Amino acid sequence: MIMRKIVSVLLAMMFLLSASANADNKRPVEVSQLPSAAQQIINKHYSRHTVVLATVKKEHFKKEYEVVFDNGDKIEFDKSGDWKEIESKASVVPLALIPKAIWQQIRMKYPKTAVKKIDRDKKGYEVKLTNMVELTFDKHFNLIEVDVD
Fold first, then answer.
1. H/E element holding 15?
2. pLDDT tens, 82-119?
3. Are 55 and 66 in contact (CB under 8 A)?
4. pTM (2 decimals)?
5. CA dist 74 → 5, 18, 51 (Å)
6. Confidence band, pLDDT 50/70/90 cuts, at residue 9
7. What number of CA atoms fall less than 13 Å from residue 140's CA on the CB side?
């Protein structure tokens, strides 16, 4: 009986410690503390905008960065400074940041639209267009899914 109580108390303590550790895994940083690749993207493609907030998030040996601009646009970067997600609230994602093979397909199939959001991971890309169509591409830029809202 006592052993059961001890185990319960230890489990509760572990839960509280992990919850508090995850609660402060995101903290503000200066733009100068971002990886150089991220700084280059900001300087080249977002020079007209002011960075309102830059944060770093550390979680399970992973480090990610997030930058929010004064117009509401947001970019998430991996630990190397490569973009993971770009979301544009006020305008559109800069063309130079969209893989050429994806942009060519969008131009052919949806010529009167632009990209509002693009995500990438090791499996591929998800793209949301201004006409609310969502496209999924594999890592070889093959269109594998179309979702219309």
1. helix 2-23
2. 999 999 998 899 999 999 999 999 999 999 999 999 99
3. yes
4. 0.81
5. 47, 28, 10
6. very low
7. 2
The token pair that represents 55 in the structure block: 């944060």
From 21, 130, 41, select the one nearest 82 (Cα to Cα).
41
Domain ranges of the chain: 92-149
Predicted confidence at residue 7, as pLDDT, reads: 44
Q: Return the amino acid letter for 56.
A: V
CATH 3.40.1420.30: does it fit domain 92-149?
yes
> Residues 125, 112: contact at Cβ < 8 Å?
no
User: DSSP characters for 58-94?
Assistant: EETTEEEEEEEETTS-EEEE-TTS-EEEEE-SSS---
